[in-house]
Protein backbone atom coordinates (compact mmCIF):
# COMPACT_ATOMS: atom_id res chain seq x y z
CA UNK A 1 0.00 0.00 0.00
CA UNK A 2 1.35 3.40 -0.97
CA UNK A 3 1.22 5.78 1.98
CA UNK A 4 -0.36 9.12 1.00
CA UNK A 5 1.06 12.54 1.76
CA UNK A 6 -0.61 15.38 3.64
CA UNK A 7 0.35 18.99 2.97
CA UNK A 8 1.66 21.19 5.74
CA UNK A 9 -1.34 23.50 5.41
CA UNK A 10 -3.80 20.60 5.67
CA UNK A 11 -2.00 19.26 8.75
CA UNK A 12 -1.91 22.72 10.34
CA UNK A 13 -5.66 23.08 9.75
CA UNK A 14 -6.38 19.69 11.32
CA UNK A 15 -4.22 20.46 14.35
CA UNK A 16 -5.90 23.83 14.86
CA UNK A 17 -9.39 22.38 14.34
CA UNK A 18 -8.71 19.68 16.93
CA UNK A 19 -7.39 22.25 19.41
CA UNK A 20 -10.39 24.53 18.87
CA UNK A 21 -12.97 21.77 19.17
CA UNK A 22 -11.27 19.90 22.00
CA UNK A 23 -12.56 16.77 20.30
CA UNK A 24 -9.49 14.64 20.83
CA UNK A 25 -9.35 14.00 17.07
CA UNK A 26 -5.89 15.55 16.91
CA UNK A 27 -3.60 13.70 14.52
CA UNK A 28 -0.77 11.84 16.23
CA UNK A 29 2.56 13.12 14.93
CA UNK A 30 5.55 10.76 14.76
CA UNK A 31 8.81 12.61 14.13
CA UNK A 32 11.56 10.18 13.12
CA UNK A 33 14.40 12.70 12.99
CA UNK A 34 17.52 11.74 14.89
CA UNK A 35 19.89 14.46 16.18
CA UNK A 36 18.17 16.88 13.80
CA UNK A 37 15.12 16.82 16.12
CA UNK A 38 16.92 19.56 18.05
CA UNK A 39 15.96 22.95 16.74
CA UNK A 40 12.19 22.64 16.87
CA UNK A 41 9.27 20.30 16.36
CA UNK A 42 5.53 20.13 15.88
CA UNK A 43 3.68 20.62 19.16
CA UNK A 44 2.87 17.25 20.69
CA UNK A 45 5.09 15.30 18.29
CA UNK A 46 6.42 11.98 19.49
CA UNK A 47 10.13 11.66 18.62
CA UNK A 48 11.03 8.11 17.62
CA UNK A 49 14.49 8.41 16.05
CA UNK A 50 14.86 6.52 12.78
CA UNK A 51 17.82 4.57 14.12
CA UNK A 52 15.51 3.14 16.84
CA UNK A 53 12.30 2.96 14.83
CA UNK A 54 12.29 -0.69 13.80
CA UNK A 55 12.84 -1.91 17.36
CA UNK A 56 10.07 0.39 18.63
CA UNK A 57 7.45 0.02 15.86
CA UNK A 58 5.47 -2.73 17.65
CA UNK A 59 5.07 -0.56 20.74
CA UNK A 60 4.07 2.36 18.55
CA UNK A 61 1.36 0.29 16.85
CA UNK A 62 -0.02 -0.57 20.30
CA UNK A 63 0.15 2.95 21.75
CA UNK A 64 -1.40 4.55 18.65
CA UNK A 65 -3.99 1.82 18.06
CA UNK A 66 -6.99 4.09 18.69
CA UNK A 67 -5.68 7.21 16.95
CA UNK A 68 -7.81 8.07 13.89
CA UNK A 69 -4.85 9.69 12.09
CA UNK A 70 -1.09 9.15 12.37
CA UNK A 71 1.30 11.44 10.48
CA UNK A 72 4.97 10.55 9.98
CA UNK A 73 7.75 12.94 9.05
CA UNK A 74 11.45 13.62 9.16
CA UNK A 75 13.31 16.72 8.04
CA UNK A 76 12.34 16.54 4.35
CA UNK A 77 10.06 13.46 4.33
CA UNK A 78 12.07 11.92 1.52
CA UNK A 79 13.72 8.95 3.26
CA UNK A 80 13.24 8.37 6.98
CA UNK A 81 9.62 9.56 7.27
CA UNK A 82 8.28 7.53 4.32
CA UNK A 83 10.26 4.43 5.37
CA UNK A 84 8.88 4.68 8.91
CA UNK A 85 5.32 5.15 7.63
CA UNK A 86 5.60 2.05 5.43
CA UNK A 87 7.07 0.01 8.30
CA UNK A 88 4.26 1.19 10.59
CA UNK A 89 1.57 0.27 8.03
CA UNK A 90 3.09 -3.21 7.67
CA UNK A 91 3.31 -3.67 11.45
CA UNK A 92 -0.26 -2.40 12.01
CA UNK A 93 -1.59 -4.63 9.24
CA UNK A 94 0.09 -7.66 10.82
CA UNK A 95 -1.18 -6.72 14.29
CA UNK A 96 -4.73 -6.43 12.90
CA UNK A 97 -4.43 -9.80 11.15
CA UNK A 98 -3.15 -11.42 14.34
CA UNK A 99 -5.84 -9.61 16.36
CA UNK A 100 -3.30 -7.86 18.59
CA UNK A 101 -5.05 -4.53 17.90
CA UNK A 102 -8.64 -3.79 16.97
CA UNK A 103 -9.96 -1.82 14.04
CA UNK A 104 -11.17 1.64 14.92
CA UNK A 105 -14.90 1.82 15.63
CA UNK A 106 -16.85 3.52 12.83
CA UNK A 107 -17.51 6.57 15.03
CA UNK A 108 -13.76 7.22 15.39
CA UNK A 109 -12.85 6.84 11.75
CA UNK A 110 -11.85 9.71 9.56
CA UNK A 111 -14.45 11.20 7.30
CA UNK A 112 -12.63 12.03 4.08
CA UNK A 113 -13.01 9.64 1.16
CA UNK A 114 -9.31 9.79 0.32
CA UNK A 115 -8.36 9.14 3.94
CA UNK A 116 -10.73 6.19 4.19
CA UNK A 117 -9.32 4.76 0.97
CA UNK A 118 -5.84 4.68 2.52
CA UNK A 119 -6.91 3.62 6.03
CA UNK A 120 -5.36 0.64 7.78
CA UNK A 121 -8.01 -0.87 10.01
CA UNK A 122 -9.83 2.45 10.03
CA UNK A 123 -6.69 4.44 10.84
CA UNK A 124 -5.44 7.03 8.37
CA UNK A 125 -1.65 6.88 8.05
CA UNK A 126 0.13 9.58 6.05
CA UNK A 127 3.42 11.42 5.54
CA UNK A 128 3.95 15.17 5.95
CA UNK A 129 4.88 16.50 2.52
CA UNK A 130 8.30 18.24 2.60
CA UNK A 131 8.76 17.36 6.27
CA UNK A 132 9.50 19.60 9.20
CA UNK A 133 11.91 21.68 7.17
CA UNK A 134 9.03 23.33 5.32
CA UNK A 135 6.41 23.04 8.07
CA UNK A 136 8.73 24.67 10.62
CA UNK A 137 9.60 27.58 8.34
CA UNK A 138 5.95 28.25 7.55
CA UNK A 139 4.61 27.92 11.09
CA UNK A 140 7.58 28.76 13.35
CA UNK A 141 5.78 31.77 14.83
CA UNK A 142 2.60 29.86 15.67
CA UNK A 143 2.91 28.44 19.20
CA UNK A 144 -0.08 26.16 18.56
CA UNK A 145 1.86 24.36 15.85
CA UNK A 146 5.63 24.62 16.44
CA UNK A 147 7.69 24.71 19.60
CA UNK A 148 11.37 25.21 20.39
CA UNK A 149 12.12 26.49 16.87
CA UNK A 150 15.77 27.55 16.66
CA UNK A 151 16.37 29.81 13.68
CA UNK A 152 20.14 29.43 13.96
CA UNK A 153 19.97 25.62 13.91
CA UNK A 154 17.89 25.73 10.72
CA UNK A 155 20.20 28.21 8.99
CA UNK A 156 22.74 25.36 8.71
CA UNK A 157 20.30 22.85 7.21
Description:
The protein is α/β, with parallel strands linked by helices and 157 residues long. The chain has a single domain, classed as Oxidized Rhodanese, domain 1, CATH 3.40.250.10. It is 41% helix and 16% strand. The protein has 6 helices and 8 strands. Strands 1, 2, 4, 5, 6 and 7 form a 6-stranded mixed beta sheet that branches. Helix 2 (50-63) runs parallel beside helix 3. The longest helix has 18 residues, at 80-97. It is globular. The protein starts with a strand and ends with a helix. The model has no long low-confidence stretch (mean pLDDT 90).
Anisotropy-based shape: globular
Q: Which residues form runs of ≥5 with pLDDT under 50?
A: none
What is the H level of CATH, i.e. the homologous superfamily? Rhodanese-like domain
Examine the secondary-structure arrangement and name the CATH architecture.
3-Layer(aba) Sandwich
In short:
With 157 residues, this protein is an alpha/beta fold. It has helices at 8-21, 50-63, 80-97, 113-117, 131-139, 151-155; strands at 5-6, 28-31, 41-42, 46-47, 69-73, 119-120, 123-128, 146-147.
Write the layout of secondary structure elements.
Layout: E1 5-6, H1 8-21, E2 28-31, E3 41-42, E4 46-47, H2 50-63, E5 69-73, H3 80-97, H4 113-117, E6 119-120, E7 123-128, H5 131-139, E8 146-147, H6 151-155
Parallel strand pairs: 1-7, 2-4, 2-5, 5-7
Antiparallel strand pairs: 3-8, 6-7
Helix pairs in contact: 2-3
Pfam family, one: Rhodanese
Domain Rhodanese: 23-144
Organism: Tilletiopsis washingtonensis
